[in-house]
Amino acid sequence: MKYLALVYYRESRVDAMSEREWHSLNQECIRCVERLSEQGHFVAGQALQPVANATTVRVRDGEVLISDGPFAETKEQLAGFYLLEARDLNQALQLAGRIPPARLGSIELRPVRELPPKDRQGDEK
């Protein structure tokens, strides 16, 4: 089963890090991905740019509304994600606990909801 591990932390805390501390954290993340990959648990993942670079899109009454910034003001900002393969929630929790930025903020773990197959009614045979 797939689980999405959303990485949250306060950007102000990262901004206060020295270049060496920031580099060290990134190297830890790279090693974490390597281990998860070797064990067959890493499906995909990516770090995100700071929330200052976010744009939010909404559609209301057929009109596309675009605004600068994230959807909501929060204490912690979404910093990236790991898509994990795990046999169950307990294993996914153990894997998420190894993600280095968990020390700075939190990891929100969510099971991936598989969409049903495309409805093939009306297709020619």
Structural overview:
It is a single chain. The chain contains 3 helices and 6 strands, in the order βααββββαβ. The two termini are 33 Å apart. The longest helix has 20 residues. It has one domain: Dimeric alpha+beta barrel (Alpha-Beta Plaits), CATH 3.30.70.1060. Helices cover 26% and strands 34% of the residues. The radius of gyration is 18 Å and the shape is flat. A 4-stranded antiparallel beta sheet has the order 2-5-1-6. Strands 3-4 form a two-stranded antiparallel sheet. Strand 3 and strand 4 form a beta hairpin. By secondary structure, it is an alpha+beta fold.
Features:
Alpha-Beta Plaits; single chain; 3 helices; 4-stranded antiparallel β-sheet; flat
Q: Can you describe this structure in just a few lines?
A:
It holds the Pfam family YCII. With 125 residues, the protein is α+β, with helices and mostly antiparallel strands.
Summarize the amount of helix as a percent range: 25-40%
Count, helices: 3
Task: Determine the structural class based on helices, strands and strand pairing.
Answer: alpha+beta
- Measured on Cα atoms, how large is the radius of gyration? 18 Å
- How many distinct folded domains? 1
State the major sheet: 4 strands, antiparallel
| Strand elements, count | 6
What is the name of the CATH superfamily? Dimeric alpha+beta barrel
The rough form would be described as flat
What name does CATH use for the topology? Alpha-Beta Plaits
What's the level 1 CATH class? Answer: Alpha Beta
Assign the CATH architecture: 2-Layer Sandwich
Order of helices and strands: EHHEEEEHE
Span of the ends, CA to CA: 33 Å
Protein name: Dehydrogenase
Family: Belongs to the YciI family.
Domain YCII-related: 1-114
InterPro entries: Dimeric_a/b-barrel, YCII
